[in-house]
Structures are given as C-alpha cells and as structure tokens.
C-alpha cells in the first residue's frame, strides 16, 4: 500500500521546522512512501526546497502561483500524489518513524476510508503554568478524552490525518474557503471533509493512538492573549460550520458537556485536595477560553452574511 505524505509550507521563517517535518516523512519505516511538498506561492522558499529535496527519490515538488491557503495547498498535494493513501502533516510537526506504518495497519485490517492518529505537544519553550491540557485542541494537539483507541470520529487534527486518496478527492478534498489564508482566521478545515465522507460513505475517521506525530509549540502558542484570540475564532468557525452543515454530528457540544460535567469537577476536587497557584490558573483559563469560544460563536450569529464573508 503506497502512501503519499503531503507537507505544505509558505514562509522562510518556518523553513527549519518544515525541513524537519519532511525529513521525518522520508525516514518512515513503511515502504513505499512518497513525499509531496507544496509551497504556497513563495518562490524563494520553493528554490530552497528544490535545492534541498529536489534530488531525493519519491519526492514531488510543487509551488502555487500565488498564496492560496492551506486547504487549497493540501488538496493540490493530494491531486499530485500517486499513493493509495494520502497523509497530511503540518510543517511544524515531526512524525515518529512508524507513523505511516501504524496508519496503514488500520487500513489493512479494516474497511476504514480515513485514519487519524495522536498529536502530542512538543513545547519549544516551557509549558505555561496556566495552560490546561483540556484545551490542547486549541494548539492542534489531542486533548484528554478526545477518543478511545480505534473509535470512529468525524475527524482528527490536521497534523496527523489521512484518507484513502480516491474517496478524499471524490468528496472535493479540503474546502479552500476554510483554513488559514492570509488574514483569514476561519478554522476547522478538516471538519467539512469528515462531514462529507460521512454523508457519502456512512463512515467516519478511525482514531489510532499508535500513529504519533509531535507538534512543535512555539512561544506565541503559549501566550494567554493569543489563546483567547484563537478561542474566539474557533467559536466563530463553529458557527460557520453549523450554518454550512446543519445536520452534521456536533462533536464540540459533546466536548463542552464532558468539560463541564467531568473535567471541571475533577479539577475542583483536585484543587480542594491539593491547592496550588497553577491549578487555580488552569481552572480560570478553562472558563476564559470557553467564554471566548462562546463569544466568537455569538459574534458570528449576529454578523450579517457570515457564510458569504467567510467565503470571500
């Protein structure tokens, strides 16, 4: 089973982590693996990529004619790929050597059409004391209680996600109107693909803990104001997704219920038993981030033509 790993990048500032991501994809234990690199409209970066990786076997290089965003770039990479499976990893992540092997294990032993794995935080600075693990999803990492091993979910996180290529392209790939592009902050570009796969094939994505990717978290991802900003736009994006796909499974509502009925009470009990400043800070952060998500959702509710603006 041939697997094509797609890595997209766009900035010379990210070149160091990006090259580590590509190297980790090239070092996989599974064979055959093809690596598809898509540079999003940056000629300087593309020339560097071509110099560093152009002579590698089983590497496909492409540069968009202009900045088109992560969703367009990932779908373009899938179109250029030749593997039966297309796997995606972010340009600031690195994969365990058996990452692809573990994804393939699920495909070969089931009728899965999509498989995603664990994304663990790789802090490049000290983890902030106030940061609660329940909100690792804000920085693209798997949070506690996300899913059981082997459980079918709508989608996993973008740093560790894969599809049967034919089915992925059949449902249109990633929507270029979602995902980061320039100053647009609309999130959740994985969700529409998962929803369309469910509608078309009646199957979700299988989560496997064995396939592991490490997601680099730089200093800005640990700043409180950035996380509040990120929370707001997650809420905004959730409202857009609800409007675009009103009948889709509501994973975030289930998460909110789990957060408020299990994780928060557990934290309160722990705080009573063993008080600490960090525990108080994390409990406060949970409520602040949750409030910011709700505020973003409400802002999108009162914003006229929110879907049209997201697609602009």
From TrEMBL:
Keywords: Membrane, Transferase, Transmembrane, Transmembrane helix. The keyword Coiled coil does not apply. It comes from the Archaea. The gene is aglG. Residues 4-167 form the Glycosyltransferase 2-like domain. Coiled coil: none annotated. Pfam families: Glycos_transf_2 (PF00535). NCBIfam families: GtaseAglG_Halo (NF041394). GO terms for molecular function: transferase activity. The chain crosses the membrane at residues 283-302. This is Glucuronosyltransferase AglG.
């Amino acid at each position: 089973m041939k697997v094509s790993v797609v890595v997209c990048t766009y900035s010379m500032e990210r070149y160091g982590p990006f090259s580590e991501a590509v190297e980790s994809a090239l070092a996989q234990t599974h064979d055959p693996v093809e690596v598809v690199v898509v540079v999003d409209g940056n000629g300087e970066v593309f020339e560097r990529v071509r110099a560093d990786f152009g002579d590698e076997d089983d590497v496909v290089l492409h540069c968009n004619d202009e900045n088109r965003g992560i969703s367009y770039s990932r779908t373009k990479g899938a179109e250029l790929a030749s593997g039966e499976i297309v796997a995606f990893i972010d340009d600031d992540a690195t994969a365990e050597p058996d990452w692809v092997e573990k994804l393939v294990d699920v495909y070969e032993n089931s009728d899965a059409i999509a498989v995603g794995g664990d994304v663990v935080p790789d802090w490049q600075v000290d983890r902030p004391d106030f940061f609660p693990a329940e909100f690792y999803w804000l920085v693209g990492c798997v949070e506690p209680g996300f899913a059981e091993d082997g459980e079918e979910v709508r989608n996993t996180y973008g740093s560790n996600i894969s599809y049967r290529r034919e089915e992925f392209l059949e449902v249109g790939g990633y929507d270029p109107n979602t995902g980061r592009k320039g100053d647009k902050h609309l999130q959740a570009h994985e969700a529409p693909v998962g929803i369309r796969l469910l509608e078309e094939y009646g199957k979700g994505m299988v989560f496997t803990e064995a396939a592991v990717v490490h997601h680099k978290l730089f200093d800005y991802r640990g700043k409180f104001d950035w996380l509040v900003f990120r929370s707001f736009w997650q809420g905004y994006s959730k409202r857009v997704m609800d409007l675009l796909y009103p009948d889709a499974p509501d994973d975030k509502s289930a998460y909110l219920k789990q957060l408020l009925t299990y994780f928060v009470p557990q934290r309160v009990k722990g705080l009573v038993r063993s008080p600490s400043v960090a525990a108080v800070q994390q409990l406060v952060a949970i409520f602040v981030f949750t409030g910011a998500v709700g505020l973003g959702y409400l802002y999108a509710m009162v914003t006229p033509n929110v879907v049209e603006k997201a697609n602009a």
